[in-house]
Amino acid sequence: MPKRARTGGEESLQGGRRELERVDLELVALLRARCELVERLWERKRTEGLPLDDPSQERRVLGRAAHAAAGQGLDPVEVERIFQGVIALGKRWARPRVILAGRGEGIESPSGRLVAGLVRSRPRGGPPVLPTEPIVKCT
């Protein structure tokens, strides 16, 4: 089938898609940066003996996001839902890294990959599934 020439409308559509892709990539980079910030904050909490989760702070983050969304003409309920996912992503990123750092292990160690896999496989919204007993006992 021969290629047909692009019309001005198709070129405009492609340009719009490229711009959306650029914004999407920026969003992903910002999500990664946020995850790394959560990890650093949690590491500090761990060393100071503070609880990692802070439901009151999460509520403030959600409220701030909803308020900002309304100011931008976006649906605050939808933006709050998105931020619930963003918060969950940060927790899933940071939890295994901070837990392993407390044990003197890295995320790429064999036990690190196991802990990260267990944390990712937990029930949605449930507490992390971490073993209370050794997974493998050496005799």
How is this structure best described in words?
- With 139 residues, the protein is mainly α.
- Helices cover 69% and strands 0% of the residues.
- Helix 1 crosses helix 3.
Radius of gyration: 21 Å
| Major pleated sheet | none
Which segments are poorly predicted (pLDDT under 50) over 5 or more consecutive residues?
128-137
Question: Which word captures the global form?
Answer: elongated
Q: Based on helices, strands and strand pairing, what is the structural class? A: mainly alpha
Tally of strands: 0
Assembly status: single chain
The averaged pLDDT comes out at 81
Query: Separation of termini?
Result: 68 Å
Count up the helices: 4
Strand-residue proportion:
under 5%
Helix content: 55-70%
- Output the helix-strand order: HHHH
Tag the structure with descriptive keywords.
mainly alpha; 69% helix; disordered C terminus
How are the elements arranged and paired?
Blueprint: H1 8-48, H2 55-71, H3 76-102, H4 110-120
Q: Would you summarize the structure shown here?
A:
With about 140 residues, this protein is mostly helical. It contains four helices and no strands. The chain has a domain of about 80 residues.
